[in-house]
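Here is a tokenized protein:
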Amino acid sequence: MLLVLSEEQKAHLGCLPRVGEAAVGELGRLAVELLRRGAAPRACEAAARKLNVGVDTIQHGVEGLAYLLTESSKLMISEVDFQESIHVLGFSDELNKLLLQLYLDNRKEIRSILGELTPKLPSYHSLEWRLDVQLASRSLRQQIKPAVTIKLHLNQNEDQTAQVLQTDPSTLLHLIQQLEQALGEMKTNHCRRIVRNMK
């Protein structure tokens, strides 16, 4: 799978040949720090003074490298695909090798950083249900009014929570049909491709 870069990202990465191949390692370190700790304007200013280039050039280079490394790591692009993806930028072979080595050295760490950034959603633990049927009341002697009560137990951050839901059987059947339809759509090739790229 090849990584497709927009024109803006190509422009950001276009500053790499101008700063020199020796500085790519420093920009790569700043890009990984950007992912790990967030924006560091002082580090970019220090790197700009050290390399005798503008701060904007350094920031664009770091942002471009951060995007390149993040997307490549997220999609688990192979070495060959990574090289073909950056080949369109028209860099020298030496710079392409430096970028490849930077990607190979940092992809596991970047994947772990991205894994920590994912939101912790509640997960299913157990379910209890009860069917209540009201057969009559004081005002109506012959009445059938069913209700389904569901207690859903969830785990979230080592804590258990419970949600109580009540509905009538027709709404519950509609909900079941919608969930079955969603599960059926997950088996399509399009959804499988999306889920595979999200991992």
Observations:
- The first strand starts at residue 123 and ends at 134.
- The mean pLDDT is 85.
- The CA atoms of residues 76 and 140 lie 65 Å apart.
- The chain is about 60% helix and 15% strand.
